[in-house]
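Exercise 7b. Backbone tokens:
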């Protein structure tokens, strides 16, 4: 079964569905878990689509996530942005994690009024840790015309060398770093030797500014536990869902 997207009515679709056009991909086994590195030739009938991907535990999704996705969409002229909840994030403690179904539903509610955003359960359907490499390989295998821009916050940049097969991952997608105005980025040297000089240079060129936000999912969960309102922190539909389902109490 393929990945499931949850589009809204009248949401834009990728023009010229790649599955409806002949293509001549060649597959090459890469490092680790039999992952696939795909190289293909794109004909005039198959249009390359710039797709943003924002992954995270979304526990819960909040307005900072949405601001990042929208800033990237506008700055990079992305066709759409996929929001991908993790099943078991390798770098996070899952002790206070809402269920996958709750987190996916909150993402759906948060983006219901924006046709450029879509929720995907591609990672929730897999067992075990949510490794980004597996997600990108699966998406590219099904959508070889996608030019995937993977969105991360500046605080994630120094963690990249610890990611699963990061060199392979950086060859399959384009990392985009969101940085608050006025804050210096000084973590690029720490990416060596996990990434090549060319890969690091590419990331340097894809730094985007975003409005300063002081929102975190951890703080939101604390506010819920303390009975405090979530005005301005999450979309109203998400706040209502949290309340109705007794999450984070």
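Sequence design result:
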């Amino acid at each position: 079964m393929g990945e499931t997207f949850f589009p809204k009515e009248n949401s834009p679709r990728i023009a010229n569905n790649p599955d409806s056009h002949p293509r001549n991909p060649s597959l090459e086994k890469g490092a680790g878990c039999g992952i696939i590195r795909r190289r293909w030739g794109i004909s005039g009938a198959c249009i390359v689509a710039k797709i943003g991907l924002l992954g995270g535990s979304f526990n819960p999704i909040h307005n900072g996530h949405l601001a990042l996705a929208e800033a990237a969409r506008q700055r990079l002229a992305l066709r759409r942005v996929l929001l991908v909840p993790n099943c078991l994030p390798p770098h996070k403690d899952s002790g206070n994690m809402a269920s996958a179904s709750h987190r996916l539903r909150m993402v759906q509610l948060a983006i219901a009024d924006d046709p450029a955003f879509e929720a995907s359960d591609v990672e929730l359907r897999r067992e075990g840790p949510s490794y980004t490499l597996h997600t990108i390989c699966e998406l590219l295998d099904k959508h070889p015309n996608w030019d995937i821009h993977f969105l991360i916050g500046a605080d994630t940049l120094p963690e990249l060398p610890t990611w699963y097969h990061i060199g392979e991952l950086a060859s399959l997608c384009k990392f985009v770093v969101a940085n608050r105005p006025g804050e210096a980025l000084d973590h690029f040297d720490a990416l060596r030797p996990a990434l090549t000089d060319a890969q690091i240079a590419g990331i340097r060129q894809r730094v985007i500014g975003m409005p300063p936000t002081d929102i975190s999912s951890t703080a939101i969960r604390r506010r819920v536990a303390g009975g405090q309102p979530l005005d301005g922190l999450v979309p109203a539909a998400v706040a209502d869902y949290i309340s109705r389902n007794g999450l984070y109490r």
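Instructor comment: DSSP finds seven helices and nine strands in the chain. The first helix runs from residue 63 to 76.
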